[in-house]
Write a structure and sequence with these properties.
Elements (H helix, E strand, L loop, with lengths): L12 E6 L2 E6 L4 H7 L23 E4 L6 E2 L10 E3 L3 H17 L7 H9 L25 E3 L9 H6 L9 E4 L6 E4 L15 H5 L5 E3 H9 L8 E6 L8 E7 L2 E6 L13 H5 L2 H4 L11
Parallel strand pairs: 1-5
Antiparallel strand pairs: 1-2, 3-4, 3-5, 6-9, 7-8, 10-11, 11-12
């Protein structure tokens, strides 16, 4: 006789008010969950669905009635009767300053289209801080064959650290080192990547929002001027290396795989992969031509 699968008890619904509109969401939801359920565009940089919120970018802040300070929407749970304002002048001013500070200190030219759109929508003017105020400019780190690190684009969102830690890989090869303007992502004792604990899963690349971490194939194509996302197609397939069944997204340009990602909503991977799934695609492009029958 088959055994019944226990089901989690249903969650109680919580009534809140967002921008004057009543909203009902499951207990335990965050303000960001509630906003997204209503289609409210809330900017996020350090938040990702498959990572634990760390509250470092503060670009998702909202006003909560009765709260002295702005609240991070990505981690603040909703409460019965909570009243939230997402687009007040105070909220817009705070988000604009965050985007200005980041844009003036790091290179966001390869950040996602959403980031570029938020910079425009919130009227961020990073140029008013001067033309040469970058604080983290440094050479690109190319010390392995799989990916490069360009920390002049790093906004210290902690996503790579979380993905390398308990949220995904549990390798703990990288962390934030230094303080203040000297804060940076680093390996232990700032050693080269091949000498660190890195296992080259590439999950840090998968969560990076600014292009600070990048496939070496993409980096070299960008250097050559041949990288063209408008000419790329994405094909979904299953990783052939083992029986886990990880879902892969193959980014193809000129009939060649240029990088591999995994969807965040996939039940098995949740966006994360191992070294084989993320980087083991070269065999597809390096097959030897079939020999004539007479030579076999």
């Amino acid at each position: 006789m088959s055994q019944a699968v226990p089901l989690a008890p249903p969650k109680r619904l919580v009534d809140v008010e967002i921008d004057g509109k009543p909203v009902r969401v499951p207990e335990g939801s965050t303000i960001l969950d509630a906003c997204r359920s209503e289609g409210i565009d809330t900017p996020t940089l350090c938040y990702l669905e498959n990572l634990t919120p760390v509250n470092v970018c503060r670009v998702c802040v909202v006003e909560v009635e009765g709260s002295r300070v702005l609240a991070p929407a990505c981690s603040r749970p909703v409460e019965p009767g909570m009243k939230v304002v997402t687009d007040s002048e105070r909220v817009r001013h705070s988000r604009r300053l965050v985007l200005e500070f980041l844009s003036s200190s790091v290179d966001l030219s390869l950040a996602s289209e959403d980031v570029q759109r938020w910079v425009r929508e919130y009227g961020a003017e990073p140029e008013r801080y001067g033309a040469a105020v970058e604080t983290v400019d440094q050479p690109v780190k190319v010390d392995n064959d799989l990916y490069v690190r360009d920390y002049s684009r790093c906004i210290l969102c902690y996503k790579c650290v979380e993905a390398c830690g308990v949220d995904a890989q549990n390798t703990f090869a990288i962390a934030v080192a230094g303080r203040g303007f000297d804060a940076r992502i680093s390996t232990e004792f700032d050693v080269q990547l091949p000498d660190s604990a890195c296992v080259y899963c590439g999950n840090c690349i998968g969560v990076c929002p600014t292009g600070a971490l990048m496939f070496r194939s993409e980096h070299e194509m960008r250097q050559e001027g041949t990288w063209d996302e408008s000419d790329q197609t994405v094909v979904e397939t299953i990783c052939p290396y083992c029986g886990v069944g990880c879902d892969l997204e193959l980014h193809v340009q000129d009939n060649a795989i240029v990088k591999v990602t995994s969807p965040l909503d996939h039940d098995i991977t949740r966006g994360h992969l191992c070294i084989k799934g993320r980087f083991g695609f070269e065999f597809v492009q390096n097959r030897e031509p079939a020999r004539p029958e007479a030579e076999r």
